[in-house]
């Protein structure tokens, strides 16, 4: 009787009931939005050592008919829990490949690359490699211009599977970056085993660069590690000249952050290329 009383209370907790209902409504709405192709890529510029825009990270936005433009904070976690995030990733991959194919036609844009975020479950789908290769072929995108961002925690779920998948895709020119690097609390031994191209320094380290001496030490260590493994390093979340300078001083040569550009629509990104003298 005691137990059922507790259950009854939990079930009728109005706040919890409301949270469940709104989550379910959001899930349904995400499904509808996927059908209606309301998820679009925003692009955030990535720069090289000479401050040239060499490409962008694709960040999903939801162009919601009633609520306006929504960021991942509103939908990614719910989409993940509902098993819908893979579909968002696939739609981003489609749009990214379509864009790369268009850019390929002009010498001014042919060398631009796009980095797409992948969720673990998509990477581990048995037919993912074939589907992605088919998408690249059908779209006409240059595989060398596509980068996939993975997090270390997701790679550790099933290392052998991840390695096999990455080897196949890398054989076709696709590159791999570890996102949020340094936040995974994992051993670094796995780095030798993974066929990687880039480490992406997490923005939490960059944010603390000015205040906290430890962050600088960590970033230095990441850059040294990347150097000895012959991996490229990119820092994300660069907001100030001071952060940029400190990153440069420890050997980081690729940058992304509000200092250089916020995530923006494709149209705006293309305008930025023109004004930046890339055309
Ligand atoms: P992330 O992959 O670590 O992306 C970086 C986030 O930092 C982005 O937030 C970006 O807008 C933000 N950011 C960039 N520069 C700065 C800066 O200088 N300062 C600050 N404070 N923030 C900066 P956003 O767009 O809200 O995305 C949040 C997260 O949502 C992403 O983190 C990623 O984990 C996830 N996400 C976004 N798009 C996708 C997608 O298509 N698929 C998957 N699976 N996840 C996605
Ligand atoms: Ca990312
Ligand atoms: Ca990141
Ligand atoms: Ca992140």
Q: What's the β-strand tally?
A: 9
State the helix count: 13
Label the structural class: alpha/beta
Distance between the termini: 75 Å
Largest pleated sheet = 9 strands, mixed
* Fraction of residues in β-strands: 15-25%
Portion of residues within helices: 40-55%
Question: pLDDT under 50 segments (min length 5)?
Answer: none
Mean pLDDT: 92
- CA gyration radius, whole angstroms: 21 Å
Small ligands present: ligand C2E, calcium ion
Supply the key terms:
279 residues, alpha/beta, nine-stranded mixed beta sheet, 9 strands, 19% strand, binds ligand C2E, binds calcium ion
How would you characterize the overall build of this protein?
It contains 13 helices and nine strands. With 279 residues, it is an alpha/beta fold. Helix 4 packs parallel to helix 6. The longest helix is centred in the N-terminal third of the chain and has 22 residues. Ligand C2E binds next to strand 2, helix 3, helix 4 and strand 6.
Describe the secondary-structure layout.
Blueprint: H1 2-12, H2 14-35, E1 39-47, E2 53-64, E3 68-70, H3 72-81, H4 85-104, E4 113-117, H5 120-123, H6 128-139, E5 146-151, H7 152-157, H8 159-171, E6 175-181, H9 190-193, E7 198-201, H10 203-207, H11 213-228, E8 232-235, H12 241-249, E9 254-255, H13 266-275
Parallel strand pairs: 2-4, 4-5, 5-6, 6-7, 7-8, 8-9
Antiparallel strand pairs: 1-2, 2-3
Helix pairs in contact: 4-6
The structure holds ligand C2E and calcium ion (3 copies).
């Amino acid at each position: 009787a005691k137990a059922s009383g507790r259950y009854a209370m939990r079930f009728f907790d109005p706040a919890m009931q409301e949270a469940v209902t709104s989550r379910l409504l959001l899930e349904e709405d995400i499904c509808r939005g996927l059908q209606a192709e309301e998820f679009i890529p925003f692009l955030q510029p990535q720069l090289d050592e000479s401050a040239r825009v060499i490409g962008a990270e694709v960040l999903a936005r939801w162009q919601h008919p009633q609520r306006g433009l929504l960021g991942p904070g509103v939908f990614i976690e719910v989409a993940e829990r509902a098993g819908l995030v893979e579909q968002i990733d696939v739609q981003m991959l489609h749009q990214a490949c379509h864009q790369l194919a268009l850019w390929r036609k002009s010498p001014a844009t042919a060398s631009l690359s796009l980095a797409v975020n992948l969720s673990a479950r998509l990477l581990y789908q048995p037919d993912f490699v074939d589907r992605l290769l088919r998408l690249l072929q059908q779209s006409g995108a240059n595989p060398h211009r596509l980068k996939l961002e993975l997090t270390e925690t997701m790679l550790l779920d099933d290392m052998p599977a991840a390695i096999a998948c990455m080897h196949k895709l890398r054989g076709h020119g696709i590159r791999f970056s570890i996102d949020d690097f340094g936040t995974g609390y994992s051993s670094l031994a796995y780095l030798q085993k993974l066929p990687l191209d880039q480490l992406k320094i997490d923005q939490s380290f960059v944010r603390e660069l000015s205040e906290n001496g430890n962050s600088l030490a960590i970033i230095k260590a990441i850059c040294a590690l990347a150097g000895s493994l012959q991996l490229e390093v990119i820092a994300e979340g660069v907001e100030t000249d001071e952060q940029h300078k400190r990153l440069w001083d420890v050997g980081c040569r690729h940058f992304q952050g509000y200092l250089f550009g916020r995530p923006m629509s494709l149209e705006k990104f293309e305008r930025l290329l023109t004004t930046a003298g890339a055309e």
